[in-house]
TrEMBL record:
InterPro entries: ClpP/crotonase-like_dom_sf, Enoyl-CoA_hyd/isom_CS, Enoyl-CoA_hydra/iso, Enoyl-CoA_hydra_C. Pfam families: ECH_1 (PF00378). Belongs to the enoyl-CoA hydratase/isomerase family. Gene3D superfamilies: 2-enoyl-CoA Hydratase, Chain A, domain 1 (3.90.226.10), Lyase 2-enoyl-coa Hydratase, Chain A, domain 2 (1.10.12.10). It comes from Streptomyces halstedii. It comes from the Bacteria. CDD domains: crotonase-like. The keyword Ligase does not apply. The keyword Nuclease does not apply. Keywords: Lyase. This is Enoyl-CoA hydratase/isomerase family protein.
């Protein structure tokens, strides 16, 4: 088993922890004294942590969760007193870095997923929650203008009516309503969340990164990279391996890794 662990922040204070095991990177938001609220330092640390994990070929899936029984209760309120709005800018940078992570991302939600916490969960590809989870987007309670990019991402996920309900009211909704609106993909019993997330993350880690990377770009609205991904498919060997494994009734051994032999996004595709 490949297992490594590191953290951002002091050993006892607010921090981001991470561990890599069996192809799955787990990032833990840890600030228990404030229900895992994100401090300015935590917002600032997240993009760099994601960059390091995306550069690690051992990482095939990323799971974001919170320490203990809470996902994240939002931004540490003291950071919002900065009149220059630097905390919100840092939150948007963190959100965009999470949305741009090149491999599948999954939020495992217990308890409160509110404000900046919900912003991070929405930036993940998928969200699994326990039955007691609560979700809310709360800038209207504080007189804060929710960023345009964050609003668009929320609208894309749940539709304009639900997005307006959440943004206009700041009210919390439960896991079952979140499931009905598309904010959540699966709702699990509290004692089954960790097992289900672990099992599903292992499924994702076993699948073709070629398929996943292309699907993620297309699902997120990219429309100019069909030829690029066709070229990657021809050169990767994943298709031949997948078909051979199916015929031979064995697990495939996919070798394509995101970032492998790739041009920079938007650059011309070469035949190699």
């Amino acid at each position: 088993m490949d297992r490594r662990q590191a953290q951002r922040g002091t050993a006892a204070g607010p921090r981001l922890e991470h561990e890599v095991a069996d192809g799955v990177a787990t990032v833990v938001i840890s600030n228990p004294a404030k229900r895992n609220a994100m401090t300015a330092d935590m917002w600032a640390a997240l993009p760099g942590l994601l960059d390091s994990l995306s550069a690690d070929p051992a990482v095939r899936v990323l799971v974001l969760t919170g320490a203990g029984g809470t996902f994240c209760a939002g931004a540490d309120i003291t950071s919002l007193q900065d009149p220059a709005g630097r905390a919100q800018e840092a939150a948007v940078r963190a959100e965009e870095a999470l949305a741009a992570f090149p491999r599948p991302t999954l939020a495992a939600v217990r308890g409160y997923c509110v404000g900046g916490g919900c912003q991070l969960a929405v930036a993940c590809d998928l969200r699994f929650a326990d039955q007691e989870a609560s979700f809310g987007v709360t800038p209207a309670k504080l007189g804060i203008v929710y960023p345009a990019s964050s609003t668009r991402r929320l609208v894309t996920l749940v539709g304009p009516a639900t997005a307006k309900y959440l943004l206009f009211s700041g009210e919390l909704i439960g896991a079952e309503r979140a499931l009905r609106t598309g904010l959540v993909d699966e709702v699990l019993p509290a004692d089954g969340l960790e097992e289900r997330v672990g099992a599903f993350a292992r499924v994702l880690a076993s699948r073709s990164q070629l398929t996943q990377a292309a699907a993620k770009e297309f699902a997120d609205g990219r429309t100019d990279r069909d030829a690029y991904w066709e070229a990657r498919a021809r050169g990767s060997g994943d298709t031949a391996e997948g078909v051979a494994a199916f015929i031979e009734r064995r697990a495939p051994r996919f070798t394509f890794t995101t970032g492998q032999d790739e041009d920079a996004p938007g650059s011309p595709v070469t035949s190699g």
